[in-house]
Specification:
Layout lengths: L3 E2 L14 E7 L5 H14 L6 E5 L5 H9 L3 E4 L34 E5 L3 E3 L14 E5 L11 H5 L23 E8 L3 H11 L8 H10 L3 E3 L6 E2 L2 H4 L11 E3 L20 H14 L16 H6 L16
Parallel strand pairs: 2-3, 2-5, 3-4, 7-9, 10-11
Antiparallel strand pairs: 1-4, 5-8, 6-11, 7-8
Family: Belongs to the glycosyltransferase 8 family. Galactosyltransferase subfamily.
Subcellular location: Cytoplasm
Catalytic activity: myo-inositol + UDP-alpha-D-galactose = alpha-D-galactosyl-(1->3)-1D-myo-inositol + UDP + H(+)
Length: 326
Amino acid sequence: MAPADVYPSAGKIAASHPKKGYVTFLAGNGDYVKGVVGLAKGLRKVKSAYPLVVAILPDVPEEHRQLLSSQGCIVKEIEPIYPPANQIQFAMAYYVINYSKLRIWNFEEFSKMVYLDADIQVYENIDHLLDTPDGYFYAVMDCFCEKTWSHSPQYSVGYCQQCPDKVTWPAEMGPPPPLYFNAGMFVFEPNKTTYEQLLETLQITPPTPFAEQDFLNMFFNPIYKPIPLIYNLVLAMLWRHPENVELEKVEVVHYCAAGSKPWRYTGQEANMDREDIKMLVKKWWDVYDDASLDYKPEDEEPFSRPAIMATLPEPAVSYIPAPSAA
C-alpha cells in the first residue's frame, strides 16, 4: 500500500528544493515522540534546508500526530511490515516492528533522503549528505563489542571492524565478515523498484537477531559505502573505542545505548554516569527545551539553500576503506 499523507504538506517543502529530505520512523503511543520533536528542532537549529518526514504506523495516536504536525513535520502513515513467521529471538523484542521502515523506499516524491532514528540528534548541518553521488547506500560502520552482539561470531572471537587490527579475524573461520553498518542513520534513494525488491526479498529471508538492520546490510552490501562516524556516533564508541572518537567533531549523536535516551535518562545504568554522556544528554535537552526552535509557519522559507551552504565549511564527505582482513 502506498503511504498516505496524514496531514497536508503544502508549504512544508520549500519550492526551491522539493526532492530531498530527512525521514524518521515512529510507532505506538510511547515517549519516542519526544525524540522526533527533538530531532525536528535540531534540524531547525542547524538550519537544514530540507523537511523532516515522519513515517508513522497506524497505532500512533492523534495527539502525537498533531504534535508532530505542529512542529513542521510531514506526517505520513504507513502500513506495518512483518517478517516471515519464525521463532527467531530478536536482540530486542521491539525490533520486529522495525521492518516497517522498508516503506520509506516507496516515498518516490523524494529523490534522496537521510534516514535518522528517533533517538538521534543532529548538531551540525549535514545537508551535504544529500549531495553524495547517486547509486550508493551510505552509512556508518557499527561496533560489535556490546553484549547485544553476543549471538555473533564477531563477539565470540573479540573481533570488531572499528579496530580490525586489535583482534584479527581467525583464518580458520574463513574470510572476515563483510562491512556492517548501523541502520540508525543512512542515506538512500527512494525507488519503487527497489521497494518492491525489498519486500520480495524479505519474504524469503529468515529473520535474524537485528531484524531490519541485518536485512538492510544483506540487501545493500554490494553498494554500501562507509562514511565517518561523525555522522552517527553510537554512544558505546565512547567506552569501546575512545581512540576513534573526536567528540568535538561529531555532528550526529545516536542515543541508542541502554539508559541514554535523554527523555528517560537517570544516570543509573552502566556507563551512564560518564561526564561525556551527561554532557551529551544536556546538549539534547538544550535543543528540546529551546522554545525559539518551535516551528513557525511564517519562517518556512527565510533562507535559500545557496545562502545556507555559503555559511558552512566545505562539505566534503570522505569514504572509509574496508579494514584489513590480515
